[in-house]
């Protein structure tokens, strides 16, 4: 399974056209990351992204923007671990609640929270975290062993590394730069679907 995490500034082509091609392949979900945008600009982009995803029946999760998701009728959010814990009792209106975490201890602390999936990383070296040592496959396995929720590895994952990711017990992978920069979206996604 595959989660696409967006980063429109990496795209050399039209971002929404690329998002349309990604959504047409029906990944597990798309997380609209776009951390550089202020709330009003993020909301405007989220409305367009939601229309694209709804056209294909692909779930969209808004990254950290809980109130924007409510305003536009988006049924999913993706939150950092601390934000999930802070808002754990206020998220009952969402169908999908992803959480980013960085330790098995955080994974164990998810019991009793409304989280529906976990994003754990970064697993391999990645330009997005240049200079920060990767946590590796043993970390990913430890997270998978610490929660009953589906776990998706993130960070430096491509098709050749995907079998190793799955061998840890992970449900799938998250890909950002690979999907934002590839020439052939469909071929890039194929091994993960």
Order of helices and strands: EHEHEHEHEHEHEHEHH
Number of helices: 9
Strand fraction band?
15-25%
Rg, rounded, reads: 16 Å
Major β-sheet profile: 8 strands, parallel, barrel
Shape: globular
Binned, the helix content reads: 25-40%
Poorly predicted parts? none
How many DSSP E strands?
Answer: 8
Mean pLDDT: 96
Protein structure class? alpha/beta
Distance between the termini: 5 Å
Strand order within the widest beta sheet = 1-2-3-4-5-6-7-8
What is this structure's SSE topology?
Elements: E1 2-5, H1 15-23, E2 29-32, H2 39-56, E3 60-63, H3 66-72, E4 76-80, H4 81-87, E5 96-101, H5 104-108, E6 117-121, H6 136-145, E7 151-154, H7 162-166, E8 172-175, H8 177-181, H9 185-189
Helix pairs in contact: 1-2
What does this structure look like?
The protein is α/β, with parallel strands linked by helices. The protein is 37% helix and 19% strand. The chain contains 9 helices and 8 strands. The protein has an 8-stranded parallel β-barrel with strand order 1-2-3-4-5-6-7-8, surrounded by 4 helices. β5, α5 and β6 form a beta-alpha-beta unit. α1 (15-23) packs parallel to α2. The longest helix has 18 residues, at 39-56. It is globular and about 40 Å long. The N and C termini lie close together (5 Å).
């Amino acid at each position: 399974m595959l989660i696409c995490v967006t980063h429109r500034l990496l795209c050399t082509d039209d971002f929404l056209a690329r998002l349309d091609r990604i959504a047409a392949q029906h990944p597990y979900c798309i997380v609209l990351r776009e951390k550089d945008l202020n709330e009003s600009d993020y909301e405007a982009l989220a409305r367009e992204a939601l229309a694209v995803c709804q056209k294909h029946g692909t779930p969209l999760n808004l990254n950290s923007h809980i109130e924007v998701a409510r305003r536009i009728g988006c049924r999913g959010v993706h939150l950092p671990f601390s934000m999930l814990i802070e808002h754990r009792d206020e998220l009952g209106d969402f169908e999908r609640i992803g959480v980013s975490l960085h330790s098995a201890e955080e994974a164990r602390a998810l019991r009793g929270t409304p989280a529906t999936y976990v994003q754990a990383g970064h697993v391999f070296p990645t330009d997005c975290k240049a200079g920060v040592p990767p946590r590796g496959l043993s970390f990913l396995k430890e997270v998978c062993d610490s929660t009953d929720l589906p776990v998706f590895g993130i960070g430096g994952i491509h098709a050749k590394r995907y079998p190793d990711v799955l061998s840890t017990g992970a449900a799938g992978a998250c890909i950002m730069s690979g999907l934002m920069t590839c020439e052939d979206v469909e071929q890039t996604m194929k091994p993960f679907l």
